[in-house]
Amino acid sequence: MYKTTYENSFPKGFLWGGATAANQIEGAWNLDGKGLSTAEVVQKADDRRKMSMGDVTEETLAIALADKTDDLYPKRRGVDFYHHYKEDIALFAEMGFKVYRFSIAWSRIFPQGEDAQPNEAGLVFYDNVLAELAKYDIVPLVTLSHYEMPVVLTQKYNGWAGRETIAAFNRFTETVFNRYHDQVDYWLTFNEINTGTWGFHETGAIDKGLSEREQLQIRYQALHHQFVASAIATKQLHQIDPNAKIGSMLARMQTYPATPKPEDVRAAQLEDEKNLFFTDVQARGEYPEYMNRFFSENGIVIHMAEDDQAILLENPVDFISFSYYMTNVTQHNQVDDGVGNMAVGGRNPYLKESDWGWQIDPVGLRITLNAMWDRYRKPLFIVENGLGALDKLEDDGHVHDQYRIDYLRAHIEQMKEAIKDGVNLLGYTMWGPIDLISFSTSEMSKRYGFIYVDQDDDGKGTLKRIKKDSFTWYKEVIASNGETL
Questions:
Q1: Do 275 and 250 form a contact (C-beta atoms < 8 A)?
Q2: What does the record give as the active site (predicted)?
C-alpha cells in the first residue's frame, strides 16, 4: 500500500520485555510431583565453546536417571525461580516490562508425559505466576515446548521420533489452553524448532553414534511430528480462544556468502533455505519444493499420515517469532570451523565476538527482519536476543555491564530502522532478563541478565538478586518506548 509517510519510531503498544525458559530458571526439579525432563539429563559442558546438549546416549541417560543430584545437571536447579517468582516478577515490573516470555514445563504438568490426570500442583504454580504478572499488567507470552519434554517419552517412543508423542503433546496443550486461555493471549509452540536438526535437546530422540544419514532421517521425521503437533495445537487454541494468537519460533541465522563468487552466493542461499524451511512449513502450511531435492539427495523419507498435509495447510501460525544472536558466513564446499557461532558456519572477519565466540552483528538483525517480513508478510516478534558475558560483581556490590548496554543498544537501533523500512514488529523480549543456566553449556558463568544472581557454576551462592547497570538503562528504554537509548 502506497503511503506518503512511514513509521519512524516504535509503535504505540510495542511489547518490551524479557524471555526465559523453565528448564534454565525454575529449579525445583524434584518437587511437587514434577517429572524429569530431557533438559535435566544433559550434563554440563567441559568446554564453554562446545555445546553439550546433544551428547546423550542410552548409557548417559541411564547414568542421569540414576543420579539424584544436580551436581552434573545444573538445569535441575536453575536459579530457583520456583520460589523467587514474586521477587523476580516485581523486578521485571520495576523495569517496566510490557511482556514476559516464559515456558510451561510439560514435565511439571504431565510428569510421565501421558499421565491419566495432570499434576494439579504444577498447574497451580503457573496459576500463581500468571496472577503475579496480571498484578503488574505484564502480558504473558507462553512457550509450550522449550527443550523440556518428559524424559519418559524418550524411553517409551524415542521422543519425537515416535508418532505417539503427537497425541501426548496435544493432550498437554489442550490442558493448558483450557486452564489459562482467559489469562494468556500470546503463545508459541516449539522453541527454535530448527535446532531439532542438531539432535536430542530439541527432539528428545537419541541418535548419537548413528550415521549422518540415519541421524537426518530420525531428526527430520521427529520434526515432521512437531509440525503436525504444532498445527493441531494452533487449531485447538483457535477453537478454545478465537482471539488468542499463536506463533512459531525459529533460531534465525542469516547467512552471508564468503565472496561474490556465484557458487558462494548459492551456498549461502541454500543455508538460508534450510534455516527458513521451518517457518515455511509453519507459516505457509506446506513443505516447500526446494526441500524435495534435499530429502532425495540425503536419502530421507518423511513418513506422513493421510491427513498430515491437510492439517498443516489448514492451521498456519498467526505470527512468526525468532531468536537472533549472530549471522553466519559460508562458501562453496564450506568446512565448519566448529568454534563458536553455534558451531556452524565460517568466521566473519568484519565482526567482533563474545567470550563464547558468537559473532556480534546488529545490522544483520535489520537484514533478517526485512527478509522475513518480505517472505511471510506476517507480524514478527523478536523473542530472544542478548549477550552472554563473564560479568563481575565488583567490590562496590555492583555489576558495571556497559558492554551489554552497548550490545543491546546497537540491536534496538537496527530494530527501529527495520520498522522504518515497513516491518511489522510486535515486540522484543531480550534473553534473559535475569541470570540463568546456559542452554548450550549448562554453566552459570555465561550471564545475560539485567539482574545478577549470586550463584556460581557449582550451584553455590545466596541466590540474591542484584540490579546491574543495564537494569536502569533498559528501564529508560522501555519508559521512552525506545527513544532513549
A1: yes
A2: 384
Q: Which tens digits make up the pLDDT trace of 87-116?
A: 999 999 999 999 999 999 999 999 999 999
Q: Amino acid letter at 200?
A: F
What are the grid coordinates assigned to 418, written together? 527495520
| CA-angle at 90, arms to 85 and 93, nearest 5° | 125
Cα distances (angstroms) measured from residue 448 to each of 140, 432, 478: 20, 6, 18
Whole-number CA gyration radius for the chain: 21
- Of 139, 93, 138, residue with least CA distance to 474: 93
**How many whole angstroms separate alpha carbon 411 and alpha carbon 200?**
31
- Round to whole Å and give the CA distance between 342 and 252: 11
**Residue 450 DSSP one-character state:** S
In angstroms, the Cα distances linking 261 to 176, 258, 332, 344 are 51, 8, 9, 21
Domains assigned to the chain? 15-479 (3.20.20.80)
CA 469, CA 249: separation in Å to the nearest integer? 30
Active site residues: 384
Mean pLDDT of 124-132: 98
Quick one: pLDDT at residue 2? Answer: 72
Q: How far apart are CA 440 and CA 275, in angstroms?
A: 19
pTM for this model (two decimals) = 0.96
DSSP-derived 3-state class of residue 264: helix
CA atoms within 13 A on the CB side of 74: 24
Place of cell 524479557: 18
Single-letter amino acid, residue 184: V
**Cβ contact 225:158 at 8 Å:** no
